[in-house]
Structure formats: C-alpha cells, structure tokens
Amino acid sequence: MTVTMKQQPGLVETMKDRNRIFSALLEIRDGEKEMI
C-alpha cells in the first residue's frame, strides 16, 4: 500500500473525496428519514 501511495500521490485525495461524498450521501439519507 505504501508503494502505491508513493507512485500515485493523487490516490489519497481521491479517497478523501470519496469519503466526503459518502458522508454527504449519508447525511442526505438521514434528512429524508426525518422528513418522512
């Protein structure tokens, strides 16, 4: 894993963006549950 990190510096940013989108989706789902 460490080797691929050095080869692909953008991979870390992609993981951060993915986590950010995932958490945003979870927040939207929670909001919809409250509305129903």
Automatic annotation (TrEMBL):
Species: Candidatus Kentrum sp. FW
Protein name: Uncharacterized protein
